[in-house]
Amino acid sequence: MNSNEINIAVVGATGAAGGTALELLLERGHPANKITAMASARSAGRKIAYGDVELTVVEAKAEAFTGIDVALFAAGGMVSRRLAHKAVEQGVFVIDKGSIFRMDPTIPLVVPEVNANDIEWHPGIVSTPNCTTTPLVMVLDALRNLSAITAVTVATYQSVTGTGVAAKEELFEQSRVVLAGGTAEPKVYPHVIAFNVLPHVDDFLEDGYSKEEHKMLNESRKILHDETLLVSATCVRVPVEISHSESVQIEFESSVNVEDAKRVLAAYDGVIVVDDPSRNEYPTPLSATGRDEVLVGRIRKDIAHKNGIVLWLSSDNLRKGAALNALQIMDEALRRDAFKPSAQRSTK
């Protein structure tokens, strides 16, 4: 099957990640008549621009998946829980952006640059990681070729589009209010996000970490196939529209040379090294926005840990952190002729 022959449903087409998926499909020249934009009942009938034409949003429900080859789910866990398996029953290959299936041992969690082979054993659904986990595991996968990794300490700087369209609108509105001398009121977040940072992404758990911070540990272990990996994260929401950044401290079993680290990162598919601080060249959210690659810089020896390397990265959370990774999974499954569940392929 040619990629332009695939009938694709984008579930959550009116949201930030779903909208980005449509943008990427348009960039690829995917035919409009091969795309079904799905969303909630209240969005049904809405028109979405797709190049020179418009897509009409249909309600996301089981019968809407008739004739669909691939469904990209970006509408939240409740929608995925309700509809993903029903889509699979109709022969649809489901790629899910939410967290609902990520730690299910029967469902692969995939970043194609890292663990594309896991697509081979999918049961009809492949899950995609949290948008902070994705760039992190790419960097770790590159660097573990130099020495085994023993521990990772990471602080994230996450944009508001990681929460969704409403959070982006809140940032813009609060910024206008504050700049006009008014008092902003929070709605999406527990505190004002404009001109502020919140060390609070997702719910807090009994151990003091948040769910988001636990995701970075658990998802990294699953993707990298390393249950011994230690990841301690502090996730922070910042007043940035698009792109997440991370400060990453990595400890290795043996000493790693900075130049070797730069070399393996520069050679890694989907990573670009931007690292010349003397010329003010390093990754920023603005420079990462609209890019497919993970930008990595500020690569240096960790003076607090003998075998440590410290670096900084920025990555577009709506592209590689969400929609692009899903489309890359689709591409890889197509290349492997693996749209059908592994149990059905094994009976050929």
Instruction: Please identify the top-level CATH class of the largest domain.
Output: Alpha Beta
Order of helices and strands: EHEEEEEHEHEHEHHEEHEHEEHH
Please identify which CATH superfamily of the largest domain we are dealing with: NAD(P)-binding Rossmann-like Domain
CATH topology of the largest domain: Rossmann fold
Largest sheet: 6 strands, parallel
The coarse overall form would be globular
Low-confidence stretches: none
Percent range of helical residues: 25-40%
Q: What separation lies between the terminal Cα atoms?
A: 18 Å
Which strand order do you get reading across the main beta sheet?
Answer: 5-2-1-6-7-8
Annotation field: number of helices: 10
Strand content: 15-25%
Radius of gyration: 20 Å
Q: Number of DSSP strands?
A: 14
Count of domain modules: 2
Overall CATH architecture of the largest domain: 3-Layer(aba) Sandwich
Helix- and strand-based class?
Answer: alpha/beta
Rounded average pLDDT: 96
Q: Could you characterize the architecture of this molecule?
A:
The protein has a six-stranded parallel beta sheet, with helices on both faces. The protein has 348 residues and is α/β, with parallel strands linked by helices. It is built from ten helices and 14 strands. Helix 1 (16-28) packs across helix 9. The chain has two domains: 3-129 and 322-345, Rossmann fold; 133-159 and 197-317, Dihydrodipicolinate Reductase, domain 2 (2-Layer Sandwich), CATH 3.30.360.10. The model has no long low-confidence stretch (mean pLDDT 96).
